[in-house]
């Protein structure tokens, strides 16, 4: 229980520390969980309170490889975020809710029984809600939307967990798994129901298509640092839960038909989410919304990889989760830095910051390269694994759809860097914008270093992933060295790739520099076509970049659909239904007749039966 | 009219070129070979002479066999053809465009309007001598010069590059920038070319 | 290894340039004119490289063409040159996925330079270029991923050796057709050439490049052309055993795309993408389903 209590204790401690030291103490306290993980490792215990009639109640925590991996992810990301919070965020409430949220995440991740798992899930939703409400830009309807979806997810999860625990001796995961593993036809009917309920619950939190209504607005209107946390870490809880259930329970179940069905369901949902969100991301006008849709798309890749249900696929999913956490943390902190330096948060009023904020530019550049999955930086390795897994699973067409989504992702990746750092300077931008402070840059460059190292040594996480998987699913192909990565159908060497890149780049640079011609630098880029006159309005193209995608029929259809229509339709349907029910309560002839008809029908049916 | 070193007499080019030495070193000769074998002309028709440019560049007279092809932006072009009269309005843009080009760059002036005003010799709004505002390398006489003349001008330009000119047009422009600017200001007013555009002339370039 | 890589780069440069020269000559004959000498592109790129000055917008602008050239050369280096293991250079350290993603690195690197020049036409061109690339890649990836699936490996050498008895273009003609349509676009031929076409360049990515940057861009374009043709020869025609065979096979593929390009006019970007995600993709999917 250490990891649940430790952050809670930190949270309470923060409340009592004077405001000047809040952020610093928060940062120092957040170093406790990673140190504890290092020294003591993950928790592992079971506890049966033996109360009368409650023998089935049991609590437990597990130290499986998957939980340890996820735990490390949370533990290492928190200090990075809090370094930025030293400068950006000193509200006590923020840090209190933040540590409480982390406590709930640890509970959820290390839980070995349904009770603690559900507690963690609910607490995560509640503290996220509280953190969202702290934001100055937040609107009531966005908050309401968030909490409604969180409640829907939690209720569905509760239903699934209750059904799962129905025949099992206790609430421990191990007992439930062994009970579900026993074959019986009644089980498979309820197994399908369980799987559907759990899939719905996890899909809501992962922002799958149709259920992503809450994601974009929440990420956009939240505080900049909390958007980073939401996207990078809180989203991984649903991934963890999906792997836990769909891989370690469903994919090894004897009911192959059900496993295959859910495999296809996961893959199709994941793919359509990626394609949809990638196209949507390209037409957004605010960097945070763009990143929100990008998060949805990347989690879509992870869900697709989970749906493959083979070992390389799950390794790819986990690797992609790690990379995605790092990259989104970097991206959101970068955007937070830009917003705090310029005071603007829309592409319409941002642009041409590259030479004024060069370090932020470089870190965003590396993040974009990793997000797009271009070798030799780390993001390519996870995609490599997922693609190989799809070939092994025998889905070349779905793989091409996924690679198509990945190619379309280049559009929004470039839009992000172009809209903020390149292009022409907007009229209303101040002249005195300087680079952000080191608090924003330090976490970014730590992540940049990690991405470069992962590019050089792509097999670094593979041993851990192998131990996670070889327990229940089959193990991974062996690697020759840390430099090489193989995905079942091919291999590549990260070290050679990076060395070749550096050598070729350096030689071309040397050749260019040694050419006799000189290059003359234009200092003011507004001299393009205006013959000495200054244009009146800015020529910055950032906000409407890629807006012509609507002309392509498929993309235009995707861009024009609004998921709000589904929900508005649903709510108007419910309103009309409730109108019918309301009719029963009026003292009028039609309603009296309706009641009489219903009563007569019931009497006749009761009498006949 | 005062500065004799800028004004060239219009004379037959072959006769003039025979007096010049060839370029000095082997590298220079190789580079000049590449420069004359590949000429990018900015696709910018400034005056009525532009009507003779499409036939020159298309199938009948085929300038591409000499290595001449069109370039779309001034950054990529070597040669700008001033094809006829230039109103002052266009002159402002042509000067701007010329300064955006990368050296070595050449100006080919077509038609008699560039020499002495031609048909518009008494107009209030056109340039009477292009030489005062931009350094011209090759003139092609006529009103309008036919495609054969234009090709002859290009061949003359190629010969100039091969034999190495005394001072290329772009070098004359840099050295006498004040003279040119003065002339430009006289007709265009003070509102030309903010300093940022001409700064580099004195800075010497970079990497 | 370094020597082999260097030889590969030089071969690619010369071959690409000569192919482009031949392309200009063929186009000229179609237009009833003579056309430039075949070495014209070499003259063009050297002239540009030796320009006395080039305009730049700072170090970001300087890096753009260099990154694009790096991407082209890396793409070339990671594709095996011959199918009998000679002159393999670094190609055995990478596989098809690496090559495909390296192909995508170039335009993105160049896009940085275009962006910093603040020319809105350049940025528009980048948007069009990325959109067109996404469209071109769907049928290309469909056919290539199908090849990987049917050959059981994503290592290009293994795909080549699986074609001992029959080249893939005969065994999977529909896949070959779909990928040739995409190749036409990748090589910058009509009807998919709106992004890089000279008269469109006002709204294109190359609008602010001059002097040695443009020279570098032209050179890397030649190397990249050869790399793409080499990839197609390796994947669909069983690779080549000698330089002469390689030149012949790549030239035939090049000529097919040239002939398609000469005849067609240009699609707009959204028309091109709409066409590409419907018809060639359908052809590729049909090709996959036939053999599944």
Describe the structure in your own words:
- The complex is a heterotrimer of chains A (609), B (207) and C (292).
- Chain A is an all-alpha fold and 609 residues long.
- Helix content of chain A is 69%, strand content 3%.
- Chain A has helices spanning 2-16, 22-30, 32-40, 65-88, 92-110, 114-133, 140-164, 173-181, 185-206, 215-221, 224-250, 256-282, 287-308, 311-342, 358-372, 379-393, 396-421, 438-456, 462-470, 494-513, 553-560, 563-583, 589-608; strands spanning 45-47, 59-61, 484-486, 491-493, 518-521.
- In chain A, the strands form two sheets. In chain A, strands 1-2 form a two-stranded antiparallel sheet. A two-stranded antiparallel sheet of chain A has the order 3-4.
- In chain A, strand 3 and strand 4 form a beta hairpin.
- In chain A, helix 6 (114-133) packs antiparallel against helix 7, helix 7 packs antiparallel against helix 9 and helix 11 (224-250) runs parallel beside helix 13.
- The longest helix of chain A is centred in the middle third of the chain and has 32 residues, at 311-342.
- Chain A is globular, with a radius of gyration of 26 Å.
- The mean pLDDT of chain A is 87.
- Chain B has helices at 13-17, 26-37, 53-57, 88-100, 113-116, 147-163, 169-175, 177-188, 195-198, 200-203; strands at 39-42, 68-71, 79-83, 106-110, 138-140.
- The radius of gyration of chain B is 17 Å and the shape is globular.
- In chain C, helix 2 (40-49) crosses helix 9 (211-236) and helix 3 (59-77) runs parallel beside helix 9.
- Chain C has eleven helices and one strand; from the N terminus they run ααβααααααααα.
- Chain C is an all-alpha fold and 292 residues long.
- Chains in contact: A-B, A-C, B-C.
């Amino acid at each position: 229980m250490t990891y649940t209590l430790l952050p809670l204790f930190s949270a309470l401690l923060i409340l009592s520390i004077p405001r000047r030291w809040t952020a610093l103490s928060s940062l120092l306290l957040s170093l406790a969980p990673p140190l504890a993980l290092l020294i003591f490792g993950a928790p592992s215990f079971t506890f049966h309170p033996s109360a009368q009639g409650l023998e089935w109640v049991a609590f437990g925590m597990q130290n499986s490889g998957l939980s340890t991996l996820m735990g490390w992810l949370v533990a290492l990301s928190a200090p990075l975020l809090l370094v930025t919070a030293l400068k950006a965020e000193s509200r006590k409430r923020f840090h209190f809710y933040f540590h409480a949220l982390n406590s709930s995440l640890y509970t959820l991740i290390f839980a070995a029984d349904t009770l603690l798992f559900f507690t963690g899930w609910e607490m995560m939703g509640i503290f996220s809600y509280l953190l969202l409400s702290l934001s100055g830009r937040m609107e009531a309807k966005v908050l309401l939307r968030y909490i409604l979806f969180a409640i829907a997810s939690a209720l569905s999860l509760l239903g699934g967990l209750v059904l799962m625990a129905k025949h099992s001796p206790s609430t421990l995961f191990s007992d439930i798994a062994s009970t579900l593993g026993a074959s019986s036809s009644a089980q498979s009917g309820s197994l399908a129901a369980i799987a559907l309920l759990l899939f719905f619950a996890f899909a809501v939190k992962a922002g799958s298509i149709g259920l992503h209504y809450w994601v974009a607005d929440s990420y956009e209107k939240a505080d900049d640092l909390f958007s980073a946390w939401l996207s990078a870490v809180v989203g991984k809880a649903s991934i963890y839960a999906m792997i836990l259930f769909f891989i370690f329970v469903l994919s090894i179940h004897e009911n192959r038909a059900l496993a295959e069905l859910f495999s296809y369901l996961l893959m199709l949902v994941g793919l359509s989410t990626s394609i949809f969100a990638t196209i949507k991301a390209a037409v957004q006008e605010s960097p945070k919304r763009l990143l929100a849709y990008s998060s949805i798309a990347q989690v879509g890749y992870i869900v697709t990889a989970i749906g493959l249900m083979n070992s390389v696929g799950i390794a790819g999913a986990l690797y992609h989760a790690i990379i995605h956490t790092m990259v989104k943390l970097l991206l959101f902190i970068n955007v937070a830095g830009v917003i705090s330096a310029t005071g603007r948060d829309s592409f319409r009023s941002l642009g041409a910051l590259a030479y004024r904020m060069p370090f932020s530019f470089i870190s965003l550049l590396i993040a974009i390269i990793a997000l797009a999955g271009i070798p030799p930086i780390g993001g390519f390795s996870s995609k490599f694994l997922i693609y190989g897994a799809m070939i092994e699973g025998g889905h070349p067409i779905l793989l091409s759809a996924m690679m198509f989504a990945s190619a379309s992702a280049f559009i929004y990746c470039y839009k992000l860097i172009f809209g903020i750092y390149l292009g022409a300077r907007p009229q209303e931008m101040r002249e005195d914008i300087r680079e952000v402070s080191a608090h924003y840059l330090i976490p970014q460059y730590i992540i940049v270093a990690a991405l470069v190292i992962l590019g050089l040594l792509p097999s670094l996480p593979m041993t851990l992933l192998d131990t996670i998987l070889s327990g229940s699913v089959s193990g991974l192909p062996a690697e020759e060295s840390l430099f090489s990565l193989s995905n079942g159908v091919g291999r590549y060497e990260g070290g050679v790739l990076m060395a070749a890149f550096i050598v070729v780049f350096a030689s071309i640079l040397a050749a260019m520099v040694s050419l006799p011609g000189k290059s003359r630098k234009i200092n003011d880029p507004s001299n393009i076509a205006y013959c000495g006159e200054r244009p009146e309005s800015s020529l910055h193209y950032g906000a409407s970049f890629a807006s012509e995608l609507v002309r392509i029929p498929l993309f235009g259809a995707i861009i024009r659909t609004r998921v709000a229509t589904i929900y508005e339709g649903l709510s108007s349907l419910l309103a009309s239904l409730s109108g019918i029910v309301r009719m029963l309560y009026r003292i009028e002839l039609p309603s009296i007749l309706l009641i009489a008809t219903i009563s007569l029908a019931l009497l006749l049916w009761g009498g006949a039966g | 009219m005062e500065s004799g070193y800028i004004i060239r007499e219009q004379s037959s080019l072959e006769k003039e070129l025979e007096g010049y030495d060839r370029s000095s070193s082997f590298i220079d000769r190789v580079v000049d070979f590449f420069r004359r074998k590949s000429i990018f002309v900015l696709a910018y028709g400034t005056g009525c002479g532009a009507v003779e440019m499409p036939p020159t560049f298309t199938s009948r007279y085929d300038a591409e066999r000499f290595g001449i092809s069109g370039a779309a932006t001034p950054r990529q072009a070597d040669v700008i053809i001033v094809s006829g009269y230039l109103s002052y309005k266009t002159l402002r843009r042509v000067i701007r465009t010329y300064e955006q080009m990368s050296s070595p760059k050449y100006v080919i002036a077509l038609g008699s309007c560039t020499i002495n005003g031609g048909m518009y010799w008494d107009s209030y709004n056109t340039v009477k001598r292009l030489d005062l505002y931009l350094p011209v390398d090759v003139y092609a006489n006529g009103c309008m010069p036919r495609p054969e003349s234009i090709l002859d001008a290009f061949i003359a330009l190629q010969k100039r590059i091969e034999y190495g000119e005394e001072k290329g047009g772009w070098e004359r422009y840099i050295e006498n920038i004040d003279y040119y600017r003065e002339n430009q200001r006289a007709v265009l007013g003070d509102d030309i070319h903010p300093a940022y555009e001409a700064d580099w002339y004195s800075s010497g370039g970079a990497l | 290894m370094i020597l082999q890589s260097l030889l590969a780069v030089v071969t690619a440069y010369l071959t690409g340039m000569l192919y482009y020269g031949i392309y200009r000559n063929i186009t000229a004959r179609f237009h009833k004119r003579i056309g430039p000498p075949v070495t014209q592109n070499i003259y063009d790129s050297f002239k540009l490289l030796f320009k006395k000055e080039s305009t730049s917008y700072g170090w970001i602008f300087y890096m753009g063409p260099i990154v694009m050239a790096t991407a082209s050369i890396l793409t070339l280096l990671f594709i095996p040159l011959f199918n009998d293991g000679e002159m393999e250079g670094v190609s055995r350290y990478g596989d098809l996925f690496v090559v495909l993603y390296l192909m995508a690195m170039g335009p993105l690197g160049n896009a940085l330079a275009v962006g910093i020049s603040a020319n809105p036409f350049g940025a528009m061109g980048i948007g069009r270029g990325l959109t067109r690339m996404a469209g071109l890649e769907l049928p290309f990836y469909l056919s290539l991923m199908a090849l990987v699936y049917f050959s059981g490996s994503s290592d290009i050498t293994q795909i080549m050796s699986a074609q001992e008895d029959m080249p893939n273009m005969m065994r999977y003609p529909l896949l070959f057709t779909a990928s040739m349509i995409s190749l036409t676009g990748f090589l910058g031929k009509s009807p998919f050439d709106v992004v890089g076409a000279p008269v469109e360049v006002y709204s294109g990515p190359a609008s602010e490049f001059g002097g040695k940057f443009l020279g570098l861009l032209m050179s890397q374009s030649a190397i990249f052309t050869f790399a793409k043709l080499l990839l197609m020869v390796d994947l669909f025609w069983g690779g080549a055993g000698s330089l002469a065979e390689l030149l012949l096979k790549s030239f035939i593929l090049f000529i097919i795309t040239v002939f398609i390009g000469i005849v067609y006019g240009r699609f707009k970007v959204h028309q091109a993408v709409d066409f590409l995600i419907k018809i060639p993709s359908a052809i590729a999917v049909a090709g996959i389903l036939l053999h599944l």
